[in-house]
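Annex B. Sample input.
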Amino acid sequence: MSSTNTKKICLWSGPRNISTALMYSFGNRNDTAIIDEPLYGYYLAKTKAKEYHPSAEEIMQSMECDGEKVIQNLLAFDEKPIFFIKNMTHHLLDLNLDFLSEMEHVVLTREPAAMIQSFSKVIEFPKAKDLGYEDHLRLIETFKERNVQFHVVDSKDILERPEQRLDVLCRAVGIPFSKAMLHWAKRARKEDGIWAKHWYHSVHDSDSFQKPVKKPESEPREDLKDLIQNSQLLYQQIIKA
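Annex B, continued. Sample output.
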């Protein structure tokens, strides 16, 4: 595998996190190009998720579904000094992982209860595989085995202290912080995947990271409780990694 001089930053997230807002944040820098979930089509083509993800066929038709070709295209990118690659961790299936050593890596996680309840509004009966917590832990172990540096970020920390936490994150991946990352235009972006119409309503109506609003905790659906409890155990391991 060969790469270019462009610094490539891979964000590894689960769904219903601030991953799209973070992509917009990096995309507001003059020196940075962004790409939205380039392995999504590959993931759908490889799994039964295509049976219940909205617009699955349209997504697969809109993008490259050969995972190895996707990775080669990412490595070859050289149009700007920085390339921010937004990924869902569970999209990383059965691929040659040698490319990991050629990129910077950020693992973005979120406390499960709110995330799973939000996710279930779009996909009514989520499965553990849809959420990415197990995949986060497997990826973290892979980083350690390969001596690849990675940085774990909890979304609530960015929401509560965006400038401070983004500055820390930028230093961790070897780039200067830019105040341009604190705001973006309140609209869709041309880089959005075509799935944005199902998932991105909130971020399209935002122009910055907003502090979480304290709301009364709603009781989760009975069929989600075990999934939330099991995910909480995994989440605790992730934030300690």
